[in-house]
Amino acid sequence: MSSIKALFSAPFYRLIHRDFHEVVATMPLTDKILFLIMHSVDKFGIWHRLPVLLGLTYLAIRRMLQQTYNLINVGSTPVGVRFNHVDYRTSDGKLNDPSNEVAGSQGSFFGRNIQPVDQRDKLTKPDPMVVATKLLARTDFKDTGKQFNMIAASWIQFMIHDWIDHLEDTQQIELIAPTEVASQCPLKSFKFYKTREVPTGSYDINSGHLNIRTPWWDGSAIYGSNNKTLSKVRTYKDGKLKISEDGLLPHDEDGAAVSGDVRNSWAGVSVLQALFVKEHNTVCDTLKREYGDLNDEDLYRHARLVTSAVIAKIHTIDWTVELLKTDTLLAGMRGNWYGLLGKKFKDAFGHVGGFILGGLVGLKSPQNHGVPYSLTEEFTSVYRMHALLPDNLLLRDTSAAPGPNKLPPLIEEVPMAEMIGLRGEARLSQIGFTKQMVSMGHQPSGALELFNYPMFLRDLTPQDRDGKDRPDHVDLAALEGTERERLLGTMNSVGD
């Protein structure tokens, strides 16, 4: 019987890459057929050019298969236990999943999309500094034209400050530039802290890495991921957060911004944090005017829910759609939010039916597909968009009359190195909120291409979790190539 099965399977396996033979062998026949459809579209690279209905069918197949085979839990999973979850966002992300008290909380494990692959002996094969120099380093700046501006580029970094950051070890690793590229590297060597490996208490995957940010879409970039940070940003009056009179974030005695997450930031992220602090405070004013009996804590909790939802909606149906800019993705992302019944129906009647009719937003219970919520190691590894940053910020004169194409006059080209970290906060205070936002809105971002990684990020001052500068500089482009220490597979296996 097995030989007959192998005989009929042989032609099928010739149609798919050998890297997938093992996982496909575990699939029932229907999933094998669906995988072959998805794999064939991928090989030809045509999903984004398909008619919308066919494109949505492809995306639905891919999502179903990945939810079935590519959501892998790291750590223990509560079985048959329900907690008294709360209807507001907690400071550390706990108690938001009724079946798992710690899911999505600060200090929870990163999940995985594929099983761990131990490549720690290949940390320098190929050498990250060679890859950074020969494939990534910017030669000539390439921008995105009118598709993506610097507000959008800052947005994704604002989201990263909401979602993900690995807990570091106390041990450092040193990278030394090989002779063949040493003369082209801003740093001939640099040290960085490895990721701390933590026992999971699970037999399947016995060690993992902890997320020191809350991976929920909970606005933690402005609220923080624990009570200590939250207490620093709240005024404890009318539910509001702290904001300076100039409309920017307040600063501590060392010049570091006071906000939910300020580590390794720049002025573009800081100004977005200030923008959504203002949004939160405006929501508080509206709620207080309409519901005068709400106290400080009530106002804060409701305003945080509203503000976090606004952030999630912008990312889902505005930012992501503009990044990839296809009709299929537009339909898919709006389907995620509104469902097949559409925006007008949902606005009028609320969420009706399951996620197909009403969308994912508004479901009464989490859709976790049997795996506790987390963001994954592979997601973290490929969500790298530093090429969006240009070499200079084109500062515009907002007090002058606009020129052609409604473009305010250019008054200064500010090197991006001056807009990073503590130095960037000081420079932003000189520029001001309005001028920074208008300037970023009129400037195209860098393109996500090879040979377009900013050189100023190859000699960067990293920061501690409290936003204080560290003494050792790092080559960020090379640092991104060291993630094999987290037991990630090759980029081909992660991407597929």
Note the topology.
Blueprint: H1 2-14, H2 21-25, H3 29-44, H4 52-69, H5 128-136, H6 150-163, E1 168-176, H7 179-182, E2 189-195, E3 198-199, E4 207-208, H8 220-223, H9 227-233, H10 267-290, H11 296-324, H12 327-338, H13 342-349, H14 355-358, H15 377-382, E5 392-396, E6 410-415, H16 421-431, H17 433-442, H18 476-479, H19 491-495
Antiparallel strand pairs: 1-2, 3-4, 5-6
Architecture overview:
Strand 3 and strand 4 (207-208) form a beta hairpin. The chain is 41% helix and 6% strand. The strands form three sheets. It has a two-stranded antiparallel ribbon. It has a domain at 1-69. The mean pLDDT is 90. The protein is globular, with a radius of gyration of 24 Å. It contains 19 helices and six strands. With 496 residues, it is mainly α. Keywords: Dioxygenase, Iron, Metal-binding, Oxidoreductase, Plant defense. One of its GO terms (biological process) is defense response. GO terms for molecular function: heme binding; metal ion binding; oxidoreductase activity, acting on single donors with incorporation of molecular oxygen, incorporation of two atoms of oxygen; peroxidase activity. Pfam families: An_peroxidase.
